[in-house]
Design brief:
This protein is an alpha/beta fold. The chain has three domains: about 1-90, Arc Repressor Mutant, subunit A, CATH 1.10.10; about 90-170 and about 275-310, 3-Layer(aba) Sandwich (D-Maltodextrin-Binding Protein, domain 2), CATH 3.40.190; about 175-275, D-Maltodextrin-Binding Protein, domain 2 (3-Layer(aba) Sandwich). The protein contains ten helices and twelve strands. Strands 3, 4, 5, 6, 7, 8, 9, 10, 11 and 12 form a ten-stranded mixed β-sheet that branches. The protein has a two-stranded antiparallel sheet with strand order 1-2. β7 (about 200-205), α8 (about 210-220) and β8 form a beta-alpha-beta unit. α1 (about 5-15) packs across α4 (about 60-90). Keywords: DNA-binding, Transcription, Transcription regulation. InterPro entries: LysR_HTH_N (IPR000847), LysR_subst-bd (IPR005119), WH-like_DNA-bd_sf (IPR036388), WH_DNA-bd_sf (IPR036390). It comes from Arthrobacter halodurans.
């Protein structure tokens, strides 16, 4: 019989591209990961990797197994969560509360979809939600913190730090789009060069934030020096200001779920930027409830066309 632990390790190996990287993420040694994969190959009767002195390469059989393993593990997590709910009783008394930190746009556009799923109540997951910016939610994961799981984003490599004791899992990439006022009479979906927008009015992040620093460097690299007409860190406000004709803005896909009529999206080849969405959690607070939330959230992001985790 195939061991579900080995399936989880397989997913991490394929995601990370090596036994050593997977071991670091999972808290194992590289030797332990290699042994698990050998055991999984024996149990399944197939070769999952082509091994060489320098690298490992998943076989087509591994790719097929990964696809099915995701569903199997999701079903197992849901079963465990439902069992916990049943043990807690019909009124939920005794159910373990899952304390979730989440950033605003994910709470606005993804979390309601997760909570609105027809079978959500049957899973018996009692959520307590804290909505805040990443630097705020990370604080809640400290040893004496009030959170079990934090969903954060990071733009580029700057601005955020967290204890090495936290496990980080990539969930998806939320791509930024260039938004223009419709009143500028540029067709929706047009390709526009950075040079054409170089001296146009822009709505920008407040200086000093990590996002603003990354965006400023990107703009400078393509010789785009915007005329700033507003500073705003609220994407919903930026969208409506752009719709009113104030200026262009850089807005991620998640926030564009409520795109107003007065804006258009254009493609600027020189501007390619995404904020990566991660889950952070202490290893000692992992549970079947956490795994269910992670799997369900990845599916919701895929529905919203946010690049999902592999």
């Amino acid at each position: 019989m195939v061991n579900p632990v080995h399936l989880r390790t397989l997913l991490e190996v394929v995601n990370q591209g090596s036994f050593a990287a997977a071991a670091t993420r999972l808290g194992y040694t590289a030797s332990a990961v290699s042994q698990q994969m050998s055991a999984l190959e024996r149990d399944a009767g197939i070769a999952l990797f082509r091994r060489s002195a320098r690298a490992i390469e998943p076989t087509p059989a591994a790719t097929t197994m990964v696809r099915h393993a995701r569903k199997v593990l999701t079903d197992i997590d849901a079963l465990l969560a439902a069992t916990t709910a049943a043990a807690a009783g019909p009124d939920g008394t005794g159910a373990r509360e899952l304390r979730l930190g989440i950033f605003p746009s994910l709470a606005t556009y993804a979390l309601p979809r997760l909570l609105g799923a027809p079978d959500w109540q049957s899973l018996g997951i009692s959520l307590r939600v804290s909505v805040g910016e990443p630097h705020q939610t990370i604080q809640g994961l400290h040893a004496d913190g009030e959170l079990d799981l934090a969903l954060i984003f990071q733009v580029g490599q700057a601005g955020l730090a967290w204890p090495s004791t936290l496990n980080r899992q990539w969930i998806g990439d939320d791509n930024f789009r260039v938004v223009l006022p419709r009143s500028w009479r540029i067709a929706d979906g047009s390709e526009v060069s950075a040079e054409q927008l170089a001296h146009m009015p822009w709505i920008m992040h407040h200086p000093g934030t990590s996002d603003a620093t990354v965006i400023s460097r990107l703009f400078a690299s393509c010789n785009l020096h915007p005329r700033v007409v507003a500073y705003c860190d609220d994407f919903n406000a930026s969208l409506h200001l752009a719709a009113a004709g104030l200026g262009a803005a850089l807005v991620p896909d998640l926030a564009l779920q409520s795109r107003p009529d007065g804006v258009v999206l254009v493609d600027v080849p020189e501007i390619r930027l995404a904020r990566s969405i991660f889950a952070l959690q202490p290893n000692d607070r992992r549970s079947s409830q956490v795994d269910v939330v992670m799997d369900r959230l990845a599916a919701v992001l895929a529905e919203l066309s946010i690049s999902p985790r592999r």
